[in-house]
Specification:
Blueprint (H helix, E strand, L loop, with lengths): L8 E7 L2 E7 L23 E8 L11 H5 L6 E7 L2 E10 L2 E9 L14 E5 L2 E5 L7 H14 L6 E5 L1
Antiparallel strand pairs: 1-2, 1-3, 3-4, 4-5, 5-6, 6-9, 7-8
Length: 166
């Protein structure tokens, strides 16, 4: 294994056939997986309906499939998209005051404070479920990829986004 392919993150794909994790970068996918185009083109909302990304929780042990990570309950903190490539939610899970909290992320440029005067009405189908969010919280593969690119490189999501606890 060369130094360019030492994994730093975990990619977990969730679909009708189960949950599969892989260390990234890896020899098949070196570098930043969000460097070009849209990263979530494969999400169709049914067959493949979600993807989680987290930092590698322990030093890399040589198993790119990360069976131990999933056996231990998966990552603690992560970013997640769910739905299909043209209509998805973007969430993060963070440890706050000793407990995990889930947040939905939105685009501040599309945000109108008056939106909170009513319940979320935008529907995002995720397999057999529907998640209701506000209009500024609906993403596409193309709009969310740059956010993941920055997070992969710098470890933080960019400023200028809204964060609402679920």
């Amino acid at each position: 294994m060369s130094e360019e392919t030492i994994p730093t993150h975990v990619k977990t794909v969730v679909g009708a056939r189960g949950t599969h994790s892989r260390a990234v970068p890896n020899p098949d996918n070196p570098g930043n997986p969000f460097a070009a185009g849209t990263a979530f083109k494969h999400l169709d909302g049914d067959r493949v309906f979600a993807e989680w990304w987290s930092r590698l929780p322990a030093p890399f042990d040589g198993d790119y499939r990360l069976t131990e990570v999933m056996r231990d309950g998966g990552p603690g903190e992560y970013l997640q998209v769910g739905g299909r490539r043209g209509r998805m939610t973007f969430e993060m899970r963070r440890l706050v005051d000793g407990r995990f909290r889930q947040y939905v992320i939105g685009r501040k440029a599309d945000f109108d404070r008056a939106v909170f005067e009513y319940a979320p009405e935008e529907e995002v189908p995720i397999q057999s479920n529907v998640q209701e969010v506000y209009p500024h919280e609906v993403w596409t593969s193309a709009s969310v990829t740059p956010v993941f690119r920055l997070w992969f490189e710098e470890g933080e999501i960019p400023g200028g986004l809204t964060i609402r606890e679920l």
